[in-house]
């Protein structure tokens, strides 16, 4: 597969704000057919106090969240990077989306932490089988901060680029994961599930 747009890819984090959106941005720029999601009940962003996060419903636009934080304390949310992140996000898509609510099908789903991976696998296993189309669910651990999200986006893009070269992903993926793990010194979780 040499045309990256033929591979349907989803990137999933908890709130569809930082890690999944950074990877979404990178993959889209490389021409991939990519969507991004969160698995949480709601979108949570750091607040002015550790125990008081800003909480939004999935579907609240990045623009509305940006304006809300800007109105609360523009200087604080500029310094901690949230307004910059939201500015990037609103240029990519309208709003954070919840993975459990999508009907789209993918060839590869990449999660960024084991807890999110477990939720994606649990959701996929609970779905009624439609057409037995395989989907590869992979986890690449990425710490939830701006710098690590950037590095994670590079790693995820590198891994998806490798997989996009395959003419038979279902047969080649185990070998590709092993090669990637050795080259990048990372452990990748992998499950094959079916739509």
Automatic annotation (TrEMBL):
It comes from the Eukaryota. GO terms for cellular component: nucleus. GO terms for molecular function: RNA polymerase II CTD heptapeptide repeat phosphatase activity. It catalyses: O-phospho-L-seryl-[protein] + H2O = L-seryl-[protein] + phosphate; O-phospho-L-threonyl-[protein] + H2O = L-threonyl-[protein] + phosphate. Keywords: Hydrolase, mRNA processing, Nucleus, Protein phosphatase. Belongs to the SSU72 phosphatase family. Protein phosphatase that catalyzes the dephosphorylation of the C-terminal domain of RNA polymerase II. Plays a role in RNA processing and termination. This is RNA polymerase II subunit A C-terminal domain phosphatase SSU72. It comes from Drosophila yakuba (Fruit fly).
